[in-house]
């Protein structure tokens, strides 16, 4: 398992900003839970991590390797 690093992640659906400037680091061996109200971006974040959606801003790295960016 590698370190997960999310930097300045952003995602919009039309004019609705779902994720805005999200930065998060999960160290190797750590456990993380995503909690929040309906519509707060939990599923969108997971879809970005899995590659089902493309981010509009920022980057996702796993083990130092870039796995998602706007380009």
UniProtKB/TrEMBL annotation:
GO terms for molecular function: ATP binding; ATP hydrolysis activity. It holds the Pfam family ABC_tran. Transmembrane segments: none annotated. Residues 19-68 form the ABC transporter domain. Keywords: ATP-binding, Nucleotide-binding, Transport. This is ABC transporter ATP-binding protein. It comes from Chromobacterium alticapitis.
């Amino acid at each position: 398992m590698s370190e997960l690093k999310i930097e300045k992640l952003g995602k919009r659906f039309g004019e609705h900003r779902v994720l805005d400037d999200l930065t998060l680091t999960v160290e190797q061996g750590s456990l993380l839970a995503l909690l929040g109200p309906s519509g707060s971006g939990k599923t969108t974040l997971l879809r970005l991590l899995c590659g089902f959606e493309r981010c509009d801003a920022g980057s996702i790295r796993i083990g130092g390797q870039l796995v998602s960016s706007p380009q």
